Amino acid sequence: MLSLIVALTAWAETAEEKGLEIAREMERRDMGWQSVRADLTMILADRQGEVSTRQIRFFGREGTEDGDRSLLVFDSPLDVKGSQFLSLSHKRGDDDQWLYLPALKRVKRISAANKGGAFMGSEFAYEDMGAPELEKYDYKYLRQEPYQNRMSFVIERYPKDEHSLYSRQVAWIDKELYIPWQVEYYNRRGEHLKTLTYRKYKKYLGRFWRPGEMEMVNHRSGKVTRLIWQNYRFQDPEVKDEMFDSQGLGYSH
């Protein structure tokens, strides 16, 4: 009788409920990292093969009552050296984002209507630079299938933000580890705009998986942005709360 009840419960679960359940498990497994810093290389490549490289320091603080916070500090090349980007993600409502440009000696707030713009000339939009908080989306389970020989869930998520660049995103989530392998982004016209691929995962502190490489391909422009992550340091005492204050942008870290 118990097995019949379990079977009926599983059968009664809707695609939307199952999609939300998968997203919720992803969030649950990644709770507790507190803070992190890392070294980041951003590689920009156009359709003709021209390449430029940027060196960045990344600082992150896990949210408790609200979303995660992140700060990116650009160290090279000279034309972007000293630029800083601060993102305060929120579980509900628009994220708060600011960009400090040393050439102008001013802090620019990124408005909700402009979050579809390119982040520092890359194929990542400002919207992509915020943490994908669970509450920002509606979800739908599509199917299971192998991705690179790893059995994965395929789910859709639909941004609730009316200013979002995207109508939907299709994500391949590892069935065992609950980490993303690939996300397809569709614009407001339903066209496949970009694909983000995660590679070279490593486990930290015994349970937190982080990619060594992320690659965003723009299918319309042919441009590609790769992010190479190195030297992850979790719960580092140098990651302080005051770093994530917009009033402090422009100061050295």
What would you say this structure looks like, in words?
The chain has 253 residues and is mainly β. It has one domain (17-248): Clam (outer membrane lipoprotein receptor (LolB), chain A), CATH 2.50.20. Helices cover 10% and strands 45% of the residues. The chain has 2 helices and 15 strands. The chain has helices at residues 2-12, 15-29; strands at 35-45, 51-61, 69-76, 84-88, 96-101, 106-109, 137-147, 150-159, 166-174, 180-187, 192-199, 202-204, 208-210, 213-218, 224-234. The strands form 2 sheets. The protein has a 13-stranded antiparallel sheet, with helices on one face. A two-stranded antiparallel ribbon has the order 12-13. Strand 2 (51-61) and strand 3 (69-76) form a beta hairpin. Mean pLDDT is 93; it is low at 4-9.
Report, as a whole number of angstroms, the end-to-end distance: 62 Å
What Rg is obtained from the alpha carbons, in whole angstroms?
19 Å
Strand order of the largest sheet: 6-5-4-3-2-1-15-14-11-10-9-8-7
- The CATH topology is what? outer membrane lipoprotein receptor (LolB), chain A
User: Architecture, CATH level 2?
Assistant: Clam
Number of domains: 1
Would you tell me the structural class of the helices and strands? mainly beta
Strand content: over 45%
Low-confidence stretches: 4-9
The CATH superfamily is Lipoprotein localisation LolA/LolB/LppX
H and E string: HHEEEEEEEEEEEEEEE
Largest sheet composition:
13 strands, antiparallel
Q: Helical residue percent?
A: 10-25%
The strand count comes to: 15
Work out the helix count.
Answer: 2
